[in-house]
Amino acid sequence: MKGVFSVIYQDADLSNYYYGVSDSEARPDRPAYMPGSATFMRMGLNTSYHLTRRWFLYSNIAFEGLDIDQRSSPLVENDYAVSLFMGASYLFGDVYEADVEDVARKKEWSWRINYGYNAKENFNNIIRGELSPDKEIDTEILGFTFGKLIVGGPRVDIYGRLALFRRLEEPYQSNFWEYVAYVMAMGKGYKAWSKQLAFRWGFGYGVSYAEEVPAAEAVEQAEKGEETSRFLNYFEMQVDFPVNNIVRTRSLRNCFVGMTVVHRSGLFGSSDLFNNITGGSNAITGHLECLR
Fold this sequence. Notes:
Oligomer: single chain
Number of strands: 12
CATH topology of the largest domain: Porin
Largest sheet: 8 strands, antiparallel, barrel
Helix content: under 10%
Strand content: over 45%
Strand order of the largest sheet: 5-6-7-8-9-10-11-12
Mean pLDDT: 89
């Protein structure tokens, strides 16, 4: 537990974004107002609690008094603001204990190639088995992914991943590149009464930047009269099976074939970082991934 104290400065643009009223927003009971730059103080208390060696909870309660120009805004009812924040974190690393149980896996990395099509359904329906392509926006995606093992275990592996996708969007628009960085949690299932791997099922979360807005996203946002964004949240679901369970070949040892669902969205319009986008796009792909 520790106390915190800070002095905060906001330039005129930022202060006006939160506390200003433009001419177009003005009403008889809410006159136009521009507060200008502001300086104010914030004080609070930070606490944290370790549940386990890796999991811990944390919270912050803070009090801040507004600048006099901000207090004069017709949008402000109180001269102060109180905030409460709570969360939880998982520590991937530990300087005292090994992250990877099998020493031979410490340098493990992976590569994956995948290819697929733009999906008609949303993500929830896809994971229920509705895999129809979108015939109105018939685009494709081709990708290469590099992964590095962060935490290895008997049931779950954690990977850091970088992906490069080629969006094949002609004739709707020119083809373009998409760049993705994310963390992948990969669960493992074994055959009954055996240590032989039967399948893997994982979920990944990160961010995606596309050189152009995918056609599926552009059409959806245009229908709703909303903005688009090249930079969006990225989510991925992957399920696959060892190649050696199907055909025995030394060259494909530690390789997997399966399906990957690629998803871009703006977190239901809840994030300024993603331009408050409410829509997104989904692609269903087949993949080959190998561990090295």
